[in-house]
Specification:
It contains six helices and eleven strands. It is an alpha+beta fold. It has one domain. Strands 7-3-4-10-11 form a five-stranded mixed beta sheet, with helices on one face. Strands 6-5-8-9 form a four-stranded mixed beta sheet, with helices on one face. The longest helix is centred in the N-terminal third of the chain and has 52 residues. About 5% of the residues have low confidence.
Length: about 350
């Protein structure tokens, strides 16, 4: 049989002509890097904004929970908690306030925030009136999440005591007392807010209406660094000796006039939710939210951390949220009040019975 012709062998692959691939040029690499940089510049702020929006939502929810706890306390006791439970005594022919325990409103509502174990650890029946007695160390060390704004970044968040972001409103005046309550009767303004030092108020005491009165708002914690002064967080010591103390606007001007970039100051503001005092759990409406006026206390020049010994000063609301602060109203609503709010309006919504007429659009 005749053999068929064979097919020619295919040339090996390595013998084929292959066009070499061309690498990326320097110009192309720079263009790609520029595009990636632009995308990152767009994406990172968007992600940060989303995260801050989530933190704001959680902050509002914290205040709503505190508002529900306030309502629970009021329903059980027929009044809102006092800023330090107290009684009135007759002294030298005049009725004077005697504060029995330095208990903050925050401490008094813990049972209504599912924190009964903390209340039991607080040994309230044994506590001294100093508010920081040794028998309360265990309770004071507890960090209660609902009391902390998620946007807060202070070093006090890892401190040995439970810090607090949300403070009780003492009104437009810079002092704890009004003239009738102070032992010497020499303080011009105080005691007009939703909470009173040594006083507990019922809803009927809010002549302006609970829905028109701020109960609590945010205040940034101290920076926890005593070596330097941070105006937005720390408060400095004026060291006024009395007996005559200035009214609110005069005091604000004095606080704005810093004697140095690092005056005697306190950096542990908001370090504990337990005791009552402007240094920790109270604030006032002497200045608008996030004011450029640094905080200050009228008494003392000693920068030693003091939890509750500040009877007056500029302790305004502040937050890490851009443009304003959250406020818990007496009816449980939470409103965001901007930094640009008129000072007269800001002070008006801090009084429980000032008789002011305030527009809803503040």
């Amino acid at each position: 049989m005749r053999d068929l012709p064979r097919r020619p062998k295919t040339l090996p692959y390595c013998d084929r002509r292959v066009t070499p691939s061309r690498g990326m040029t320097l110009v192309e690499a720079l263009v790609v890097i520029s595009i990636i940089g632009i995308l990152m510049a767009l994406v990172i702020p968007a992600v940060s904004a989303i995260r801050e929006s989530a933190r704001r939502t959680q902050c509002r929810n914290n205040l709503r929970q505190i508002g529900l706890a306030m309502d629970g306390f009021q329903a059980a006791t027929r009044s809102f908690p006092a800023a330090g439970p107290g009684v009135h005594l007759m002294v030298g022919g005049h009725t004077r306030l005697a504060v029995l325990k330095q208990f903050s409103p925050q401490l008094q509502i813990l049972s209504y925030l599912d924190q009964e174990n903390v209340v039991k650890a607080a040994n309230l029946s044994l506590a001294s009136d100093s508010g920081d007695a040794p028998e309360n160390a265990t309770a004071m060390s507890v960090h209660i999440r609902v009391f902390i704004c998620p946007s807060e970044t202070s070093a006090l968040l890892v401190g040995s005591t439970g810090p607090v972001s949300y403070r009780a409103n003492l009104g437009p005046g810079p002092y704890l007392f009004d003239m009738d309550d102070h032992p010497t009767g020499d303080l011009p303004q105080g005691g007009e807010g939703a909470f009173g030092y040594g006083h507990s108020f019922t809803p009927q005491d809010f002549k302006d209406g609970v829905s028109n009165t701020v109960m609590m708002s945010e205040k940034l914690m101290g920076d926890g660094e005593s070596a330097s002064f941070t105006p937005s967080r720390d408060y400095w010591c004026l060291g006024l000796a009395g007996p005559d103390y200035p009214a609110a606007d005069v005091l604000v001007s004095m606080c704005a006039n810093l004697p140095s970039i690092n005056p005697p100051h306190v950096s542990d503001g908001g370090s504990s939710w337990y005791p009552v005092g402007f240094g920790v759990t109270l604030y006032n409406h002497t200045v608008t939210p996030n004011s450029r006026v640094p905080g200050c206390k009228v008494n003392g020049v000693d920068p030693t951390p003091d939890l509750s010994g500040n009877f007056g000063g500029v302790f305004g609301a502040s937050s890490m949220h851009g443009g304003g602060v959250h406020c818990l109203m007496g009816d449980g609503a939470v409103r965001f009040v901007t930094d640009t709010v008129n000072l007269a309006v800001w002070r008006a919504i801090s009084t429980r019975s000032g008789g002011e007429v305030v527009s809803e659009a503040f």
